[in-house]
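Illustration 12: tRNA N6-adenosine threonylcarbamoyltransferase.
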Amino acid sequence: MIVLGVESSCDETGLALYDTQRGLLGHALHSQVAMHEEYGGVVPELASRDHIRRALPLLEQVLAQAGAGRHDIDAIAYTQGPGLAGALLVGASIACGLGLALDRPVLGVHHLEGHLLSPLLAGDPPEFPFVALLISGGHTQLMRVDGVGSYTLLGETVDDAAGEAFDKSAKLLGLGYPGGPALSRMAEFGDSGAYRLPRPMLHSKDLNFSFSGLKTAVLTLVKNHPANICEQDKANIARAFVDAIVEVLVAKSVAALKQTGLRRLVIAGGVGANAQLRASLNDIAQRRRFRVYYPELQFCTDNGAMIALAGAMRLQRDPSCATREYGFNVRPRWPLDELKAV
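Figure caption equivalent — predicted structure in token form:
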């Protein structure tokens, strides 16, 4: 079965073809970063309009990669939520329009389920059950994953997500948009002993997170510097920030493994590409003797491959989850634990 995946939840347009027998056949992604950069963040209306322009050319690119035609598609999966309402509506309308034209079933996929399952695209995928640390621009959650759709929330952020804290702190340092990756790169040149920032909720005895105070601590450091703060001081602050956030993420993940008794940890979402986080997790995993699984770097950010995979896994377990009724709705807010197991 060949499933087309359509991702349009925010500022990336992603399409992919996934075959349940052969794996990923092709994928294409367009990022809108350059367009939104001058505004310092995503402009929803511009994002929606760009999805309209990009989706069908990307589809042709993916079909060419796969050596397939539109009629080789057996089903179409699209991101139904969460995300920006207008952006989601574009992807849903394209997916359902193609479904109607080709007489193929369609199904809406939860964006975060796509991220959780994305490490399964790798050559050595984890087996269920596992603990997942989902860390993206809008979400920081620890989940127990017992199967497709079987998710138990263990802990989450009570304020800013880790990705938000990265981006906001980067903006305070004048690093532009998107700031998270730039801050991570700058941190590599910082002195780890120059500053020490708080580790919010590190000893809270639960699995929740809080990062707004960490961002405030960065603001205080920046304000205590002269207006012409030098690049080395910026790097030192960036290093202190990354050291703090990585220590909290790693400690909570290890605590989640201990609480559940599991030995497999999956890292998913854009922050999962952070080199310092990966190095710290790999080090402690070796010492504590558990395994850590990551998506390939190209699949850490939003992409169509994870949506195609999630749709295919659901269809394999329950073909009735797709429909040939082509009316659609989207869910800009959609708790992951509302999904049904299949």
